[in-house]
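Sequence, please.
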């Protein structure tokens, strides 16, 4: 399965916008393609350190994940980052999560 960075962003936004701050996902017997996709991308977000498992079936944003999703929640910002650093969008965000670094990145690239 290929990594879909837009889908990963959508999952992070779902967590950020959730009343509880987390999303539930449990892989069941005979999972659908969407269940497999969601499971795979939650694992990728955990590998990146952006999401952590709260308990069985519940996932939450880490502090770095919160910083990252705040930086990419605007669609125009996300699209600009992807165009400037294709294939490395999350690596760019993870390296610039302080408010000072995000402000500098925004000014440098003309977004935010």
């Amino acid at each position: 399965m290929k990594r879909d960075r837009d889908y990963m962003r959508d999952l992070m936004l779902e967590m950020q916008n959730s009343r509880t701050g987390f999303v539930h996902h449990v892989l069941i017997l005979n999972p659908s393609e969407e269940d497999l996709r969601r499971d795979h991308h939650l694992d990728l977000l955990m590998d990146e350190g952006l999401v952590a498992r709260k308990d069985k079936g519940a996932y939450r944003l880490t502090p770095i994940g919160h910083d990252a999703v705040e930086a990419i929640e605007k669609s125009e910002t996300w699209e600009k980052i992807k165009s400037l650093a294709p294939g490395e969008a999350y690596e760019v965000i993870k390296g610039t999560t302080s408010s000072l670094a995000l402000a500098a990145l925004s000014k440098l690239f003309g977004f935010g």
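Residues 95 and 101 are 9 Å apart (CA to CA).
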